[in-house]
Amino acid sequence: MIRIVTRAHLARLEDDARIASEQVRQISGAANEAFSRHVRELWHVTDRAKRAEAATTEVGVLLSGALAELSDAQQELLRKDIEIRRLREELSRGPVEGETVTVLMHHGEPHAVYASRNDAHADTATHGYPADHVWKPCDERPAAAFTWRCEAFTYNPASNGFHRANRVVPRTLDGAA
Length: 177
What we know:
- The chain is of the alpha+beta class.
- 55% of the residues lie in helices and 15% in strands.
- The model has no long low-confidence stretch (mean pLDDT 85).
């Protein structure tokens, strides 16, 4: 088969080729532009995911710290609740005969009342007395003559009160009582 190509036909083919080439160039540009948009969008999404992951990690650390603090607070609350129950039981039982309390006196004036002498001595350490201070029994001088003095008081149910445990026995002065 022989085909005869005329100039007009060749011109139409060249125009069609040029149009097709232009369409390929436009479609290729649009495809490149769409690909670039998708790459930018992927980069932004990846960046947001990394930031969200970092924020999640930070929140996890904060949450674990808060949970640890909550656990410590709950344990402290439980200890205080136990101590409150113990003190309520002790308070409801009332004083027992022979029970002793220690009154810490500062220059003869009551400063505080303690369940034990050791507690009173520890408190004087907070007021400038050395913690290793050796406590000696007080002599017959008045309580006001001492900077710090511990006096023991024992419960007596007959009088419904606490009385000084160590009563000073008066000295005899040349036969006088």
